[in-house]
Write a structure and sequence with these properties.
six-stranded mixed sheet; PRTase_dom; three-stranded antiparallel sheet; Hypoxanthine-guanine phosphoribosyltransferase; globular; binds magnesium ion; binds guanosine-5'-monophosphate; 29% strand; alpha/beta
């Protein structure tokens, strides 16, 4: 069993293409942090945003960007998943909802990737319903899918082509969240997805 997993994981990566190396990924995270620090760094505004990391894909992005943010903030995570027929938009299910107060606050949502945008559109809508003053969507990757999305990211690290990527928190079948760069899988390896 163990060997099967090991071989499968290795085979996926063997056929994959590295789109962005560790250095480009880290540079993109730092640019995003700079931009948030510019926006929230003014002490006279006394802002105290709520930062929400969307588990599990955003765990690595979140862990990399948080120590680069220099303003007071409160952090928590949320967990949402999309189930059902992906082509029909799927159904977004909340496994963990925000515990701190959302009402009246600026909320910064950190996520790994904006693909079709259904997940983040739903998250943004729900946070606004909970009374958020403003919802800022910060995604590490924005996938160029060649059509408009139901939600727009306010801050993007890297724009990627319309390929299935792994690394920097993103997985295929649970594998390779631990890669420091971004890799696009070979489409042949996704046929049974
Ligand atoms: P959306 O609702 O935007 O289509 O789906 C977003 C979620 O799907 C992401 O948060 C991520 O979990 C997953 N996803 C979308 N594209 C990719 C991809 O290229 N690679 C991986 N590993 N996950 C993806
Ligand atoms: Mg996700
Ligand atoms: Mg996944």
């Amino acid at each position: 069993m163990q060997d099967f997993h090991h071989d499968r994981a290795r085979a996926l990566l063997k056929n994959a293409e590295e789109l962005f190396d560790k250095e480009s990924v880290q540079a993109a995270v730092s640019r995003m942090a700079d931009s948030l620090n510019d926006r929230f760094g003014d002490p006279s505004k006394q802002e105290f945003p709520l930062v929400l990391g969307v588990m599990g894909g955003a765990v690595v992005f979140t862990g990399n960007i948080l120590p680069q943010l220099t303003f007071p903030l409160e952090f928590d995570y949320i967990h949402v998943s999309r189930y059902g027929d992906e082509d029909q938009g799927g159904k977004v299910v909340w496994k963990v909802v925000p515990r701190p107060t959302v009402s009246g606050r600026t909320v910064i949502v950190l996520d790994d990737i904006l693909d079709e945008g259904e997940t983040l559109a739903h998250v943004k809508e729900r946070l606004l319903e909970m009374g958020a003053k403003e919802v800022i969507i910060a995604v590490f990757c924005d996938k160029d899918i060649g059509k408009s999305k139901p939600v727009k990211a306010d801050l993007v690290g890297i724009t990627i082509p319309n390929r299935f990527v792994v690394g920097f928190g993103m997985d295929a079948y649970g594998y390779w969240r631990n890669l420091p760069g971004l890799w696009a899988l070979n489409p042949d390896d996704l046929s049974t997805r």
